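Let us practice reading a record.
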Amino acid sequence: MSWLRSLLLDSIRARLLVLLLGGLGTLMTCLFLVLDYSIDRQIYGRLDATLLGRARGVVVLLERHPRDAAWQELHELSPEYASGGHTDFLQIWDDAGATVFSSASNTAHNLQPPSAAVPANAPLFYDLRLPDDHRGRAVALRFGMPGRAGDATLVVAEEREQVDQLERRVHVVLISGVLGIGLLAALLAVLAVRGSLRPLLAFAAGTEADGAPRVAPLPMARMPRELRPFAATLNSAFARLQEALERERRFARDVAHELRTPLAETRMAVELASRGAPPPHVLADALASIGRMQRCIDGLLALSRYEAGMDRAQLEPLELAELLRRALALVAGPARQRQVRVEAALPVECWVMCDPALLERIVDNLLLNAAEYAPRGSEVQLVLADAAEGRTLRIGNAAPGLSAQDVARFGERFWRKSAAREAGNHGGLGLALSGTLAGLLGLRLDFALEHGVLWAALGPLRPLVPPEHAGS
């Protein structure tokens, strides 16, 4: 029986089928017993009521008429007792047990008297063998017969063969109906279980041969309500797995793509150094390549950690104006080298709820990107605007060489407008990292080209009452 136990433990479908079929079988059995008991009670109840009515009629007839006239009238009213047949029988005993009257249908045989004492004011029903050896049903009554001392006992009996045959036919119909309904219910249960589990079975069958989950999620609309939480959990787990696999592939692809050129430059510098004293610019280029690789690796690792959810935003009260002033001081040096002016109109203070470290990294990336790519002698604008949902930080710089199609690709990893910028100081990950961090903070980072000026809009930043003004 170990195989049966293993089947039941290893298969949800087998468990459901056993539970449903066992429950249906129990229900059908109980239904059969209830119906059988009710029908039997109705059939034999009617037989007993008929017998009791006849017996009481005989008692009334005997109590109101002289004995000989009563017998004659009884034979006239109920000729079945005088016909000598074998369906209806009657016999009366006196208090001493002697037969007072016996119907002609008894054929000189006595009816089987009741084995128990007959109550004085209640009928006694019992089964017996009739004079013709057929099965019968009888009722016994005690009554006072005129002209005789003591009570007499009347027994009226009737053959029950036809009633028994009717009961057997009812049993056959009941058993056939219950079995038919049970088989139909079992078939419906099998179809219901199979149909309910079909989405899961189809999902398992659609899994790739190498074990990798397919991209298409489980169809939630056709899923039974009880299985939807399970399906949602599976979809979420496989979606996270797909994201993790995609991050790994993208990380490997980005590393291979981005580090190829710096590695080649570094190798060339090392080969030149091995042949003799290399020119100073060769070593400078090698150091620049190493720095670029370091920035690329740092950016990729930061993106991977944030996308994987390893680093999370820690929201706290933040004085935004002070953070922007620090960012402006950081970008002042690169801006002077390129003769780019940075104009900013900031309030004395501006409190928001945000993660200081993540927001500072986003602002630094946006300002450095604007200062590096703005044309020489142009201007970078920083505007802190109020909106209905909160404050919005806007950073704009002139971008005469960009088009709307270029702006649509902002935020893609390693995308640059021209190949000439491949050797620049940026690793091509600043805007991608900024977009990821903005998503962690629940902010939108949008880029728009307006009259030749590229605007980066970050927001909405939820305002907060300054701590010193909280009481007021």
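A brief commentary: The longest helix spans residues 12-64.
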